[in-house]
Design goal:
This protein is of the alpha+beta class. The chain folds into two domains: 47 residues; 164 residues, 2-Layer Sandwich (Beta-Lactamase). The protein contains eight helices and nine strands. A six-stranded antiparallel beta sheet has the order 6-5-4-9-8-7. The chain has a three-stranded antiparallel beta sheet with strand order 1-3-2. The two termini are 32 Å apart.
């Protein structure tokens, strides 16, 4: 996923498709209102129809509707950036985000997709899956953090198992050097994790405060879960 208009040539490369085929497909999607052309005519971005479809889906999906409310409430109560996240196309995806009240803003955007090993939520969203399935979803690039550090696959698998047993996950300094992420699972059925609720907080948040936030997060995630 991208938060900007993308060149049609770049899109063809990303899809590993011929340019001619990509141009034809883009024209059809633009005609249907699903994509829109940027000002220069060589770049495209999601059209208004997709936005409206997404809004309709959010209103009709009970988990997402209630999740948005819980995330907004949690952010107001704690002053921290709160998110509802799901697994989409092998990526951790923020489906709703509510900024905190701190004077500096922690980067978080609805629709943003991030490699699973970079996040606390990723470790929970994969909990319960067999190792072979996890390995099939994680590329070598996914294991390389933004600062160049590499997470060993065995360590990531161990983290997933620990998160499953603990019922929550906390990661520090993975996406950047300034934040840590706290995540708790949302279940759609016994043992099936459908989503996570998470808080993104400054990395120097005290252990006591982190514990308080984890307890609150687990309570709110449990309220969203289907018994």
């Amino acid at each position: 996923a991208t938060q900007r208009a993308i060149g049609i040539g770049e899109l063809a490369k990303g899809l590993n498709a011929p340019r001619s085929t990509t141009y034809t497909l883009v024209r059809e999607l633009v005609g249907a209102g699903l994509l829109e052309m940027a000002g220069d005519g060589n770049r495209v971005y999601f059209g208004k129809k997709l936005y409206l479809y997404g809004m309709a889906y959010m209103r009709g999906n009970d988990l997402l509707r209630r999740g948005r409310q819980e995330v907004d409430t949690l952010s107001r109560e704690t002053g921290e950036t709160s998110e509802l996240c799901m697994l989409q196309s092998g990526r951790y995806t923020i489906v709703h985000s509510s900024p905190g009240t701190r004077p500096f803003r922690i980067s978080s955007a609805t629709g943003l997709q991030i490699p699973l090993p970079w996040t606390a939520s990723g470790r929970l969203l994969l909990a319960g899956l067999e190792r072979s399935r996890i390995e099939a979803m994680i590329s070598q690039d996914d294991l390389v953090l933004p600062d160049g550090r590499k997470i060993e696959l065995d360590d990531f698998i161990d983290d997933i198992a620990e998160a499953r047993v603990a019922g929550y996950c906390v990661t520090s300094g993975l996406v950047d050097a300034y934040t840590k992420c706290l995540a708790a699972p949302v279940f759609s059925a016994p043992g099936k994790i459908e989503a996570t609720m998470c808080l993104v907080v400054p990395i120097d948040t005290s252990g006591d405060r982190t514990g308080e936030l984890v307890a609150l997060l687990r309570d709110r995630a449990a309220r969203l879960s289907i018994p």
